Amino acid sequence: MNKKRSKKKRFYKNAKRNQVWTEEVQGREIDFADKYVYDGIYTDKYDYMRPKQKRKKYFNKNNVISFFKKFGIVVLCLLVFNVGYIFMNVYMQRHSMPVVAENEEEVVEPALNEVAFDLKSKYVESVSFDGGVMLDAVITDLQANGYNSVAFDVKREEGTIGYKSALANVDTFGAIAFPATNLKGSVAKLANEDILTVGIVHCYRDNLVPSVQKSAAIIGKNGLVYKDSRDNTYLNPDLDITYNYIKGIIQEAYDMGVKIFVLDDVNLPSSISDNYNDGFENLAKRLYKDIGTDIKLLEAVNVELKSFAPEESTTSKDQTNDSNENKQNKKPDKKDDEISQKLSSNLNNNQIYFVKTSAEKNVIKQKVEEHGISNFILSD
Fold it and tell me: What distance in Å separates the CA atoms of residue 102 and residue 104, rounded to the nearest whole number?
């Protein structure tokens, strides 16, 4: 049985697609969804029937603990930052350079070895540095007579040492004699009274060490230890043993507080001086290099005043007649002449007069100062 195929009927032609419909729109709009948007208005007519989703609570126990942990960390960080800032600020203020005005130049303190000193010094024996009664008597005398410093022997001209030394070579040579029993304490006590301590070092003249260790001495052409016209012997300036011996003594005294040293006997007798590297400049240069510039080295310029006899050091208070006055006026003339001939105010910054006299030191001091001399040591 043949089935007849039915031809599908077209409702409109392709040429009029979307223009001609089989039926016109009639009736009302079909409500085909419970949610829709019409004319820009959203509606959900079944919203009241839908189960409501509960909002998640943020402030639960775990969240609160986490919040306070984070808050505590933030507070701790701020606290550490502020404390660190305060300490850094205090540190910078204490260690900062002083403020210099724009119109002011920065002042640079010179090293001690470059400072020019005016030392009005009186020599005393090393034993006076006991830190007690004897030192108190020295301080009283210095202050009463206008001295600003006191000098003592670190190394004496015969070779002995004037303080308690712990150096092995000093012990070997048996060089300690009549020492200062408390040098460090005495130097500090003098400093509290604004009195400087000056250490005298007789460098190359030494009658002790050459007798113990011949290899450190200057040897004459005859193969024996050299002696000058006064039978003095000398250490050899060109030997390391000599330099190290002198340096060790100065270094040890420096460690005890002494910062100013007068170097005496740095020049050998003229008959042998040209054969050795003696002299103040050579020795001072090496000492400054090895010990540093926080010390002051001065060369002793030795002067002996003979016109100041002991009986001339004091004047009678009862001189009332003309003859006595004339004698009194004549005596200072002789003294003044000797001072003018032997002392000058033209010393350089690395020299100091080492004045030896048997007269009353306070009288000498007055006369020397009247001639404009301000850098001196008065000794017997």
Answer: 6
Amino acid at 338: E
Closest CA to 117 of 379, 377, 343: 377
pLDDT of residue 263: 98
pTM: 0.68
Beta-carbon contacts of 102 under 8 Å, excluding residues fewer than 6 positions away, are none
| Secondary structure of residue 14 in the 3-state scheme | helix
The strand pair at 41-44 and 35-38 is best described as: antiparallel
Calculate what percentage of the chain has a pLDDT beyond 70.
74
Cβ contacts of 209 within 8 Å, gap of 6 or more = 159, 173, 175, 216, 217, 235, 245
Euclidean distance between the first and the last CA atom of the chain, given in angstroms as a whole number: 167
- The tens digit of pLDDT for each residue in 129-186 reads 999 999 999 999 999 999 999 999 999 999 999 999 999 999 999 999 999 999 999 9
CB 147 within 8 A of CB 121: yes
Task: Say how far apart CA 12 and CA 304 lie, in whole Å.
Answer: 150
| 339 and 366 Cβ atoms separated by less than 8 Å | no
Please tell me the predicted confidence (pLDDT) of residue 256.
97
- Angle, vertex CA 11, rays to CA 7 and CA 14, nearest 5: 100
- Round to whole Å and give the CA distance between 357 and 372: 19
> What is the spatial distance between Cα 344 and Cα 361, in angstroms, rounded to a whole number?
19
User: Would the pLDDT of 188 be above 60?
Assistant: yes
Using DSSP's 3-state secondary structure scheme, residue 181 falls into coil
343 residue type, one letter? L
pLDDT band for position 317 (50/70/90)? very low
Pinpoint the alpha helices (H) of 209-360.
209-212, 240-255, 270-273, 280-291, 322-342
Total number of residues shown for the chain? 380
